[in-house]
Structures are given as C-alpha cells and as structure tokens.
Amino acid sequence: MNTYKRHRFPPEIISYAVWLYFRFNLSHRDVEDLLAERGITITYESIRLWCIKFGAKYARRLKRKHQGYGDTFYLDEVFVKI
Known about the structure:
55% helix, mainly alpha
C-alpha cells in the first residue's frame, strides 16, 4: 500500500519536509521558506497536514536512530570564580 497516493507532490519532497520539521524543530513556515529557496512552492498548511499524517512514522525512526547520551560529560576550559 502506497501511503503517498493522491498527493500532489512526490514522496521525496513530502518526506524531506516532514524530516526537516521533526529533525531540526522548525516551524511549518520555516520549512515552507526552506523549500521555497529550493524552488518548491508549497503552503505551510500542506506541510502541517503532512506532519500530522506522516509525522509519527518519521519521529519514531529518528528516535530509534538516536543513541542517547552517555554517562561521561567532558567540560573543556571551564573556569568558575567563587
């Protein structure tokens, strides 16, 4: 089953817009501006609907890839005057 059926834009553009929104914590209008710079005219409302429809799948995939933080934190060149 193709989940991208009956959409005006190809799956690559839809997935890129949703990926930008969830990966970099951008607003819908920011994603609209980034796509406009690449010559893709789209409304923020379309991006919002795509994020609602396809967002859970992308968010799960991004969280699965994230390794998390370790137990060791490195502080370089920190000076605290007390």
